[in-house]
User: What shape does this take?
Amino acid sequence: MTDGYTTAMRESIKRVEATRPARMQETWPMMTPVEKQEVLRRFHPDYKPEGMRELRAGSAKGMRTPHELADLLEGHSLLRNHQLDLDRIDFDTDVLIIGGGGAGSAAALLAREQGAKVLMVTKLRHGDANTMMAQGGIQAADKENDTPILHYLDVIGGGHFSNDPDLVEALVRDAPEVIAWLESLGCMFDKEPDGTMITIHGGGTSRKRMHSARDYSGAEIMRTLRDEVRSHPEEISVVEFAPAVELIRDDKGQCAGAILLNLETGEHYVVRAKTTILATGGSGRLHYQGFATTNHYGATGDGVILAYRMGAQTSFLDTMQYHPTGAAYPAQIVGLLVTEKVRGLGAQVCNIDGKQFVYPRETRDVEASAIIRECVEKENGVTTPSGFTGVWLDSPMIDLIHGPGTIQKELPAMVRQFARFGIDIIQDPMLVYPTLHYQNGGVTLKPDGSTSIPNLYGAGEISGGVHGRNRLMGNSLLEVTVYGRRAGRAAGQRVPEVTLGKLTLDHVAEWEKELAEAGIETDVESPLILPDYTRHGR
Ligand code: MEZ
Assistant: This one.
């Protein structure tokens, strides 16, 4: 294998190797609550006043959110210059699910169980979603030394006591059942030879409750859910490459479906639905404050924007998750996820001199802030040829702690991701820096997945409240499955009670009026659908 590191990086790696034997015996102390607040205040991107602005229109008027999201939330409808005939219905369904990731797929399965006819529409392909990109695992308190109450306390503590307690309760209560459900559908979780589930720690967890499928847990969960959805073509139809560009409201003020855009032909489709579930995921591709992202290509926050335009309540739009360890080198993979499982298995984080500076399993917001401080303020990071700076994640420690072969067995995707560029993470550390990972806030939900708009539900990363101001590892895959199931069940059960009125897009006209009254002059049209670095034309 060729050496993927530069000579200067090699010099620093020598120092990491030199300190390793002593560090193996060293536990870096966790920060005190005061130290945590201080590092967050000074270095976490959420705390940078210039990164956000107040919204000037809509249900969250006066609340702050990143500029990039604010501009889209206050954008014009993509339909404002189109005349659509809403009496010409292209798809008529009981439950419309917008989004083909983990939450949408779980919702489809549970809505079907209620006897509903389901249409799932997705911007790209079924499974092109952040669920697919999640690596390290899914939390559930299903071991003898653990309980949902302990899980609850960890989630609330990790979220700085700002989470919606009812949403957290639903999350942790359903968790063991969700693991059993996924397993019953064929999900291959890691197990001991005797069949016991293997569970490890993540940042901020008081018990080992992270269930994984190597380091491609999200891909395995997505595979399982997608296979199951595709096994029921009679009741669940899937339309790909057809993002929703606007929700439809009926003349009784209920959500009544959506307008889709056929990405290939540019045609619009009218979908009439008794209930609608938004499961469009997060917004990492908006690259807040210029951060690289772990997110899939279609993560442009569309669902929050559509719901906002219809007047839905939102919460925590001012908090995003920056995963502490995104790849910082090589340039081709900057921002891609380096799973927290690496630290869960014992790897430490070190600076240019091979010295630790932070406990490796602080909660993500604190860990990320400490890494930013080390690079920006203390200038103890390693600079790459493309000018990016990062710190070392000392992966070779894992084999020293757990025995040779562990890295290859537990982290095959990581090994492969770096080997493509001549870096062997079994022998050498990885260079990492925080990367935009998750939208902590979004559409406000009730525990059954319903929103403030009648017949509109939400699930997964689109929602706000479960995680408060900071999410713990493994609660994203849990959120998508728990709330996907809850929203699917509730939306399916609601179907027989719904009588739809005449379909309208009146809320879009009302929105345009509100923008004008607020004096907002903008060229922005939203949702964005795809990031603006999309290749246009040939
Ligand atoms: O929950 C996550 O975000 C997750 C599992 C990420 C990871 O580090 O692997």
Q: What stands out?
A: The CA atoms of residues 277 and 457 lie 4 Å apart. The pocket of (2E)-2-methylbut-2-enedioic acid is lined by residues 134-137, 337, 339-341, 473-474, 476 (CB under 6 Å). The chain is about 30% helix and 20% strand. The chain has a mean pLDDT of 97.
